[in-house]
Design brief:
Number of strands: 12
Mean pLDDT: 96
Low-confidence stretches: none
Number of helices: 7
Strand order of the largest sheet: 3-4-2-1-12-11
Structural class: alpha+beta
Helix content: 10-25%
Oligomer: single chain
Distance between the termini: 42 Å
Order of helices and strands: EHEHHEEEEEHEHEHEHEE
Length: 286
């Protein structure tokens, strides 16, 4: 079974690329983030295309911002929209959906950004992650927690730690919240497969960050122990970030039980840019 997670940064804008990618990669379960469509708009605009490809869909959407979905052609049962008891800002946002897919509890998540350390947005992010932890803890061990976590787990997951000083995504409380989630027995399938490799899943649109391979690894697939034992391949589909009109994120892929493309990775195709010298680049917003 092939599972993927992808922040598409507008499903409507990315639709031709998304459909081509589905036809090429043939994932069985797809977790989407930042769909930026209401439930009705997603079903009306995109639903027939997905149905024609054999996918059932579950959506937690909203207009213009946020929005998550799960596509599955291996079953889609017991759908839960949102995080029970989770916080809002101030209203509850469309950032989580989960369902049973072929015996695995699959979560599609778009974790709040946090914006600025110690801001109201930042504390909302930490509270949201704690509510997510409680939800996952109450569920089965056969679980996949997938999505844009908006946290780089370690300094190895950013192109230059010095460039991120004072920024969100890398602070100790955020990383501690992610670690607390993983303490439930969740394995980071990419890092398990590629412990010492440079792997990114997000590159800012500005300043040629993608072509220079100045990125972050913030899109994760975390697997419960029984599911992690089934992993045959785990990789970032960097090809989907190339070309005209891409998302700023690339899909993260995991193959369970069999690997149709072999044990490929960590980024496909690999970047041609060499690793940057530390301190030689700054973030575009800096």
């Amino acid at each position: 079974m092939r599972v993927a997670t992808w922040n598409v940064n507008s499903a409507k804008q990315r639709l031709p690329r998304l459909l081509d990618w589905l036809d090429q990669r043939q994932p069985d379960v797809v977790c989407l983030q930042e769909i930026k469509l209401t439930n009705d708009a997603f079903a009306n605009v995109l639903g027939p295309e997905f149905t024609d490809r054999g996918y059932e869909i579950a959506v937690n959407g909203e207009a213009q911002w946020n929005g998550v979905a799960i596509l599955s052609r291996v079953g889609l049962d017991d759908v839960v929209v949102g995080i029970p008891g989770g916080p809002g800002f101030p209203q509850v946002e469309s950032r989580a959906i989960s369902a049973d897919c072929n015996g695995i509890r699959v979560h599609s998540l778009y974790v709040p950004n946090g914006r600025v350390p110690n801001s109201e947005h930042y504390h909302y992010k930490l509270a949201w992650l704690e509510a997510l932890r409680a939800q996952v803890a109450a569920g089965p061990d056969e679980v996949l927690v997938c999505g844009d976590m908006n946290i780089a787990p370690t300094d190895a997951d950013v192109f230059d730690p010095a460039a991120y000083i004072g920024q969100t995504h890398v602070t100790a409380p955020e990383r501690a919240a992610l670690a607390r989630l993983q303490e439930l027995g969740l394995r980071d399938v990419i890092r398990d497969r590629w412990p010492n490799e440079t792997v990114f899943s997000y590159w800012d649109y500005r300043a040629g960050m993608f072509h220079k391979n100045l990125g972050m690894r913030i899109d994760l697939i975390l697997a419960g122990t029984p599911v992690a034992a089934r992993v045959q391949a785990a990789w970032v589909d960097r090809l989907a970030r190339k070309g005209t009109g891409p998302s700023d994120h690339a899909p993260v892929m995991v193959d369970l039980d069999a690997a149709p493309d072999g044990d490929i990775g960590p980024m496909v195709p690999p970047p041609s840019a060499k690793a940057p010298r530390r301190g030689s680049h700054k973030l575009p917003q800096a």
